[in-house]
Amino acid sequence: MPLFARRGIVAAAAAAVPVVFLGAFFAWPLFATVRRAFFAPSLAGQDATVSVRAVLQAAGTTLGLAGAGTALTLAIGLPAAWALYRRRWRGSRLLAAALTAPFVLPTMVVALAFLTLQRDLAPALGARHGLPAIIAALAFFNVAVVLRTVGPALEGMDERLVAAARTLGASRAAAARRVVWPAVRRSVAGAAAITFLFCSTSFAIVLVLGGTRIRTLETAAYLELTSFLDLRGAAIIAIVQACLIASVAAGVGWLSRPGRYAVTQAAPLRPSAGRSDAAAIALALAPALVLTLVPLGTLVARSLRGQHGPTLDAYRTLFGLSEAAGSIAGSVAASLWIAVAAASLALLVGVLAVAAAAVHPGARWVRALTVGPLAVSSVVVGVGLLVALAVPLRSWGAPGTYVLLIAAQALVATPLVVRVLSPVLEGIDPRQAAAAATLGASPTRTVVRVVLPRMRAALASAAGLAFAVAVGEFGASVFLARPGTPTLPTAIMRLLSRPGAENVATASAGAVVLAVIAGGAMMLAEGSRRQRR
Length: 533
Description:
By secondary structure, this protein is mostly helical. The protein has 21 helices and two strands.
């Protein structure tokens, strides 16, 4: 028995908010960007200053950095995945959680951590151009992707297959090549594709660590807009970036099709680690631990270091407790309430989109539409909003800018909310709702008493994830935030552009606070989810 008698009307009503929101703040800005890029003159009435050669060079740099970041990520992540998921030993679960935690950190935090490390170790690394630090930062982020994707495949593989191969005379290398690799190669391909996608859209990392010397498509669009005031040139580069990301995303989808790399068996056996495995496990985990702990430790140490030794001056400045505080303290408060508003909006849009798809199969296209912002770079989102809506909304003053920032952050967070909620809602047995309706419960009462209790854990997880993503969002916010209304990530970027060691220390303190806020939100959401299981 269907939960709602008029499912088409209910689905249409639920889909109205997501359709209006995505149409106004995503589809229309994207259309305006294409129009600006190909059919409209620039603001100055001149042709775009960007050349085809510059766009091709930026595209080549984007692909090259993404390829190098993917290679380093796999080189570090695959041995770590083997040590954590292929062998069973005390503490492996806790260490796996610690190594996947950096994935929820804002990109500005990671960028500043490696900038601090680069400045301290640049003479030893010869890294004045920033490339080693950028590639290492990309790997820092995406080792978690490899662990989460390849780890379950390794964990689920039956060790008896390897033992049978060894019994039949295969060497350890031959067993790995003939038995283990065929079982995990598709998960490795999927992890590589997702990592390549994320590396192609690491705007903050390249901008902070590479400055104006290294130009990917995203940083080139940013520089066209901020240095040359060439809105049309930025729009052209944004369109090229969107096409590139869409191509990579299509490849990721193809590699991630259900059943392409799943490894299943009735009784997976994960052998315990013996003494002979200790050295190999330590050697496999060492690069991942160094890559994770050293930059974050350097960032915290830099935030506590003054000219005359350890000090909390940077934190006093950050929270408005010193004379040099300026507007930094205000940006912390602004980031928090903007992120709360954006997460609430993303949750509302995501819930209604998922509900519409669940009520009526014909409304599934609404849920698919919410994933659109994930298929383009956040830089494209920021440029699109700037092209289409900045002029009318900014005529409202500061409230108009806040509307743009909330919409941009909600657009980035909505696809993640939908991905968290969809499988949970689809997993609810419809017979439970039908039984409640048969017993006389109204549709509203059935939703409140049957559906919501099963959705609470997923809603808490989605809310925490949306807030963590919104509070650290930088790629779109940097185009939309004004000097009087900066978010914390954009305030950190502005501090880095100023000379003086005290500004770097305050930026480091801001990054530490940002990491604590984002990580704390995820921990609270995760704790709530586990309590409600």
